[in-house]
Amino acid sequence: MGSGSLGSGATVGSAGQGSGWEVVGHAGLATIAPAWRAVEAQGRTLAFQRLGWVEAWWRTMAPDLPVTPLFIEVRHDGRPVMVLPLCVRRELGLRLLEFIDGGATDYHAPALAADLPDIPPGFAEDLFGRILAVAPPVDVVSLRNVPTHVAGRPNPLLPGGAAPQALPGYRMRLADFPACTRGVMSQAERKLRRLRRQHGVELTAQREDAEALDSLFRWKGRQYPGCLLDRPHGRAFYRALMEAGLATLYALRIDGRTAAVAYLVEGGGDVVELLLGFDPEQAKLSPGGALRVHMMQCLKEAGVATLDSGIGDEPYKADCGDGWQTLYAWRRPVTPLGSVCLGAWGTARAAWHGVRRLASRQGGGQGGGQGRAMKKARPMRPGLSSWWSQGGSNP
Prior knowledge:
alpha+beta; 2 domains; 11 helices; 18 strands; disordered N terminus
């Protein structure tokens, strides 16, 4: 099982990649933290790969997961230019090298230095070859939820053989708000004005709002019993992010009672709408839509360029325009066991999609809308079983 201790973070090895590149593996955060802070300070790190996020994840989530840390520092000419928060996770007897996740991480990408040099062809494949030289024994390298860009720069971790996966990400340009919403948000704005006329309405945005966060946990736990937000380690993780000042909670209270909450994090110049929930007993007042309108107006006025709604194809995202972002998956077998398992899972995945298409036709085509709601509904997002639903054809 993973350890919640940050440990001494001993360096576990290094491997040269030629042309001035070097890969250094760390068994904990202590030895890599200075390089990580230097890279993150340059502003090309997504929220899910910030050092504070990983510290909170390792302290709260890792103890309940079968993971071993492998934090990778990539140097060029002796200086850190890239950081990868990886781990080796065991599932069904298989050892998988992957990004830390556990159901909490929407995008798997490296933290990049602003002065990252030009990336040579085949870099991602060569990089993972060097990573395997410093990693514990693994059977499969598994990359999922890989975006094409990191903070506006092409993602150097996107291998040539990566395949599009089923679930996309979604990013909305706030400069286009509210025109891009085709009137949907205008309706929500009218409902918010009506709420203000008929009720006492309070809208807040705070770094710490324990009551709002507890309300969000309670609503999601009732909606999806056993989900990440209904488990002690999941709740501890989101509390830790809030206490570290990495989250902002927008809350709508009607007549003194919390009606809707949005949980946002920042990274790479973007704001990510990580969680959104509302009180089902006040659903007829449309508190979720009213809160989103207020939130987007505030973010736009604050100069935020992009609101990222994360992974998932929930229908409400389409109401905000065409901001879908294709995500990619890539798997590489390392051992004969890994090759056999990937082949078997590919066959199982094809059968799973056939059943899903059949069920969709029989149910009138209602097959969409997977996303964060379902992702958070899982106790954790298993790497193997999720490959079936994510789609990609590799290997």
